[in-house]
Amino acid sequence: MHLVRNTFISIALLVFTTTGFAVASSVTDGCGNSGSKKVEKLYKEAITFLNQEKHNAALKVLKEAVAKDDRYAKAFYLIAHIYSLQGDYVKAKINFQNVLEVCVDFDPEIHLSLAKLEFKLEKYHEAVQYANDFLDMEYSNPQLEDEAIDIIKTGEFYHSMFSNPVPFDPKPMSGICTSFDEYLPMLTPDNDFLYFTRRHKKDSKFTVIGDAWVEEFCVAVKKEDGSFTSGKPLRSPFNQSQNEGGASLSKDNKNIFITVCNSPQGAGSCDVFYSERRGESWSELSSLGKNVNDSLWQSQVSCAPDGKRLYFSSDRKGGYGGKDIYYTVFKKGEWTKPVNLGPEINTEADEKSPFIHQDGITLYFSSEGHLGLGGFDIFISRIDGQGKWTQARNIGYPINSESDDLGFFASTNGKKGYFASNKLEGKGGWDIYEFDLYEGIRPKKVLFVKGSVTDESGNAVRGAQLKLKDLITKSVKSIDVDSITGEYVYSEIFENDQMLTINSEGYFYDEMLITETEVASVNNIQFDSELLPVEIGSSFQLNNILFDTDKYDLKLDSKLSLDNLVDFLNTNKSIQLEVAGHTDDVGDDEKNKILSDNRARVVFEYLISSGIDSNRVRYIGYGEEFPKVENTDEINRSLNRRTEIKILESM
Q1: How do residues 95-106 score in pLDDT, each as one tens digit?
Q2: How many angstroms separate the CA atoms of 39 and 262, rounded?
């Protein structure tokens, strides 16, 4: 049974007057009457029974009346009303339709009553039709007209939702879910860690009576097969109170924002706190400050990709309803006064559980004010080209249900949705579920790349420069590298293939071609680069120089990769090098030698055509003479098919 939230479904068809039970004043005096005095007498008996609240007795005599006169509209009208009062909406509907069949002008309100009955019976398309019929009659009653308009709006929405269910097949998250309760989940932006709350029985410092049920803030780690460990409680400064959770982390996983309720350091019933990662530990929890945390309730925080904007729900004064969604920005060392997201997001009711995706423009949240199917439904909104939020859109049935649907978030690659529920058949009470997110509500594609830049000894390379080049627009962006750890992380909306290049003075560059296929298949791209020093006699493989079988034509990707080599030679103008082609052992030795020579030659020619002095470069094909590994299988043979450069004497 679908939950009908709207109050217009009450069906008041008759009115009590000072003289007793009577037909509503709008009823016509024309075709509704009977020419039989016996039938009219039965009708009056029914009115008497109704005034005595003897509904079944009234039904009996009214049925006698219509048996004697099957075109007696007034009797059908009363029968319909009695069935409505008794909750038998099917019979009520049939008898109202009987009224219209014998006397279409009997009472315009019958069309509205039928609209309400069809709504009760979950026949939303029919409800809309009857409501439109009522409005077409131009019946002068603003209140009833508003009810009809409300039925049309809601009926069309319900009909669309239930007639067009979206794909939804939730499964408990492997490794996480136990016989205990797990809820308030949130993946880190790289999707490698899952933070959540687990309620279970253990020895508790909060009680002196032994075992007790406690809530613990936990973290689980993704394994190589994509599943997660079962999760462990976080150590201090977490789990020091009995009510904390709902975390969100910055994209480098170095800052965590969390809701803490009833804290001595808090300003209201629940407040937003943060902690900074310091090596393997976390700093003490600190309040976001008085601008954000007031004397009321603020919770359910979500961190934007830049780490400088937080979205959260609050019942602070000045909003549109009870709980609204706000954002705050980190400026000049503090979090600013929160800004309400406006009427496209917030309503006169409550909005909760905001989640801003790593694309930075897609917001998911729960609302009981926007048109939905239950208490709280999940909605999506995006920032448009003018920087405005689009009107919130329901993400569909059966993801949204008759129950409260809260705490939704999406994976970074936009393919998975996550939530916690105690209404599905999981492993415990509350479990954390994942499901495939259908295309229509996915966020924008996001490039999320992270890694480290080190030397052969594993130390951070000082002065390393990371450049990300759009291969279509040719625009170049710089990526910051931690000078102490050598770590970096970067994300942006993905539009075109990119070339990531890492340079540092005295080292040979490294590069990675990032394609749409790769971005769509993973949540994050890990690129750990070990830069090698440029020394006379050292060799480096050009990883993105690839050829078709028995061919030596340069592909577009290979040319883009060679542009990095051109930049390297232009930066290091004293360096001379040799381009060497290598093959596997398949085929004739001499043919392999010629093929490798041709492949080295086209690389040489590209460098010269790009402005490199021919005196600085030479080329040679070695065929299968110098394999990197033994040619024992296809994997090894693919490693031996390569193009290398060798540093020669400086000019």
Answers
A1: 999 999 999 989
A2: 71
